[in-house]
Amino acid sequence: MIIDSTPPLLDHYRALLDHSSSLETTEHNSHCSGVAMEECELPLIDLGGLRSHDKWERLGCAKAISKASSEWGFFQVVNHGISLELVKKMRKEQIEFFEAPFEYKATSRLLNNSYRWGTPTATRPNQFSWSEAFHIPLTKVSEEDCYGDFISLREPMTEFAAAMSKLARLLAGVLAESLGHRREVLEDICDESTCFLRLNHYPACPVSSEIFGLVPHTDSGFLTILCQDQVGGLQLMKDFKWVSVKPNQEALIVNVGDLFQAWSNDVYKSVEHRVIANKTQRYSIAYFLCPSYDSIIGSSREPSVYRNFTFREYRSQVQEDVKKMGYKVGLSRFLVEDESIHAMLKATKTT
């Protein structure tokens, strides 16, 4: 008897196709096209510069991080302090983990009961992601009872999560300092209970030219650090077109999230990105640096583009939009101009 480890993605995708109109299906196929205009190499930054005894080399490295965050919203880092041996060990354990039977992954409450697959809220094919993942808070990573029969994953995952957390806070500090703030300013609001490590698996897809591995989106936190394999599939929006990111075995990918764009008053850019499904399966691990739910996210300079809001409020709005409309609206919900317009309309109605 063959036990399948892959979720019933194709069944759900076909069901969405069957319930879509011919117009929606045509739009979907056009929007889902995995053909990017070009392959790009993200700005590559050697973080060894931050440890240099030369002041100007340190400043040059910090400037490169800030520039890439402003112009691309994405960059790659090498000499990041996470050993290739740890990455290989983590990848080996991750592959074995996802090879467990689907029913076991779905019912065993592994990794804080965080298993998810496909897109439960999808009502159309272009809202569906051909992937499965575990999304676990940092505070739970070291707990033995999270791992079930896969206790061998605990040690490398705990070490990997700590290293990614340290790196994310270093980079966030550099970006804060580049805006004229002390490096520790974000340390005060970032909380391990809301920072996540996400294990991603994109199974081989028989309709890969027509479907997303992960739908177009921006990340909601401050920073995301991605450790990916060499299969490829990550694409980002650059100069109003999709470009494919060339994998680099030695580098980690860093991207700015919505909260950092808001906090920086649009100096740093949270850029839309997606993953295109492949006929070859793909693995990645993402770390998300986030604040506590009740932290106030205010712009770091005036005049402010966005009104003050909490991370809890932001997440709730995103979830509400996805539930109602099938997609994330994001930061445009929190523009100061929107408040001014609403206030003016309200005043007009009462006069």
From TrEMBL:
Its EC number is 1.14.11.13. The keyword Transcription does not apply. It catalyses: gibberellin A1 + 2-oxoglutarate + O2 = gibberellin A8 + succinate + CO2. Pfam families: 2OG-FeII_Oxy (PF03171), DIOX_N (PF14226). GO terms for biological process: gibberellin metabolic process. It comes from the Eukaryota. Residues 191-291 form the Fe2OG dioxygenase domain. Keywords: Dioxygenase, Iron, Metal-binding, Oxidoreductase. The keyword Metal-binding applies. GO terms for molecular function: gibberellin 2-beta-dioxygenase activity; metal ion binding. Belongs to the iron/ascorbate-dependent oxidoreductase family. GA2OX subfamily. This is gibberellin 2beta-dioxygenase. It comes from Ficus carica.
